[in-house]
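User:
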Amino acid sequence: MAKVETINRENKVQEQGNCGSAMDLISSLLAIGNEQSLRSVVSNLGQELAVCHGLLVEMEAEVQQQEKLRDRLKMIKMSVERQRSEAEHLQENVPPYLPKPTRSCNTGPAVKREEATKAECTKKSKEDATAVKQMPLISPEEFDNIPAYLRGRLRCEQINVVIQEINNAVAAKYKIMHQPLKSMKAPARKLYSRFLEEEIKETRGEFFIMEADIKEFTQLKMDKRCYNILSILRHAQRLREIRCSGFVRYIIC
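Assistant: Predicted structure:
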């Protein structure tokens, strides 16, 4: 009994000491806060503590997210291992009554598939070689965005008629270019020679026509109105011009 009372007295003394030390700390902090020279330091410490608190909150959220991701990965790993185990079991326990694969049933369809794939690729490459680039028509929205000084009194339908005529000219020109030389008649051979002479370094790999082609393959008149429409098409990025040796080549974009 005397021992218990002694312990209680010691605890009370310790509590009084803790209270005294806490009061001393509070008094010290109040004294610091009242000092003008230390107020800025205390304010900076408070701001830094707030920043640290925000970083700790972000780190806690990131840790929680990573824990969720870890749990999901564990579930995926368990599922993959289970499926692999099932696949290995099926491979080791194939029923004996199932038919075994033979050489004929494996190679035959594979060869046919390979031949069909080669034929399809050959057909596609031929189509790509003869494909001709065409200009898309001008939409009403694009027409409205064309500057008024270019449009003038032109209508969207009139511009699209010129686009269709130029597309027809391009198609006619490159139809001749893609023909075998031996199958050409004299007029086509003459045009083919002119097309080759008109090729320059800047037009390699491009589809283009010249004024002579427009006159040859269309009913368009190369007047002021037609040149104005060509300027509109250049503004709308349907074609671009290359000027060389006094001639204009219209590149299809």
